[in-house]
Sequence to fold (72 residues):
Amino acid sequence: MSSITSAMNFSTTVSQTIFQGSQQAAKAINDGAERLDRKKETISQQGLQNIQERQATAQRMDEARNKIDTFA
Fold:
């Protein structure tokens, strides 16, 4: 009977260890995905800001050209 109990205890311990390991791995993956999402959001915001700045500059240049054309 002792060997059966030992085998059951071993099986339980292995199952718990595997379960804990899988939980830790899932948490690490989720943490990494969240960091990646934050980085992508930052990059997207910077890109959008750059585009908006270029559009504003282009608009000012167009307005300046129109004024020059009017006076010329």
About this structure: The helical segments are 2-71. The CA atoms of residues 11 and 17 lie 10 Å apart.
